[in-house]
Amino acid sequence: MKVVRTEGALRDALTPHRRADHSIGFVPTMGALHEGHLSLLRAARLECDVVVVSIFVNPLQFGPREDLAAYPRSEERDLHLAEGAGTDIVFAPTTEEMYPAGTSTMVTAADVALPLEGEARPGHFDGVATVVAKLFNQVQPHKAYFGQKDAQQVAVIQAMVRDLSIPVEVVVCPTVREPDGLAMSSRNAYLSSEERERATVLWRALEAGHAALSEGAAQEVAEKVMEDVVESETGVVLGYARAVDPTTFGPSDGTSPILLVIAARVGSTRLIDNLPVSEA
Ligand code: PAF
């Protein structure tokens, strides 16, 4: 496994593969790798000739009151895990390498970025779209792998790829969960053991919302069911609990598939999760 830290070194590492017409699979990450990331790397390993992972904590996607400085960083462990999952090339640039002085071009994310996470974290998705567009240009992958866990991010990236004609296939892999249902997230590292217990409320609420819909409840009823589950848990503050259209993240019109989405603050840690529902 090669570790490269500059765009030039990345280009040099990929040149022989491009010449050999190898398919390139790419997993963009901010490090603090967990089973969710490893499932993306394994999927890329199965489907592509070369697997590239980026590890870059992207300052553009953090708001002024968010946890950029405190974001978990564990490069040595990440490299070990990435190698175990079959990675060929790790691209781990510095902030100066990604955004040299004078850099000011930004991608404005599509309208799907506006509600929910977009309201809670203004500018976040523009920062995500900008870094992912730049990484796509640097790596030029055939396939790029993202987790369903960050469903609105996936919709933003799919819209960007479509709108800007970026020649990459976006592959979405299922959310990886702990045995008690908690979705794997680098932010779970912030939870105390008591908060970790409480955090399962997101999954419990999604399951309750899903059960309500399966029994024929209206979407608003399912939303209320999810809210009630979250509000019954101490130390957890609800952000939103909605049934949305998974491509627009606006209300579902009842004919398109429904995605249940939820955000809540557990102690000082904001967590998100979602559950696709096949039938309205
Ligand atoms: O999902 C993430 O870890 C980040 O948003 C991403 C896609 C690596 C962009 O920084």
**Level of helix content?**
25-40%
- How many beta-strand elements? 9
Largest sheet: 6 strands, parallel
Describe the global form: globular
Helix segment tally: 10
Q: Enter the CATH topology name of the largest domain.
A: Rossmann fold
- Radius of gyration, whole Å: 19 Å
Task: Find the structural class using helix and strand composition.
Answer: alpha/beta
Please name the CATH architecture of the largest domain.
3-Layer(aba) Sandwich
CATH class of the largest domain: Alpha Beta
Q: Mean pLDDT across all residues, rounded? A: 97
The secondary-structure element order is EHEHEHEHHHEHEHHHEEE
Poorly predicted runs are none
| Beta-strand proportion | 15-25%
Give the distance, in angstroms, between the N- and C-terminal Cα atoms.
46 Å
CATH superfamily of the largest domain: HUPs
Say which molecules are bound, naming each kind only once: pantoate
Total domains, how many? 2
Oligomer: single chain
Strand numbers in spatial order across the main sheet: 1-4-3-2-5-6
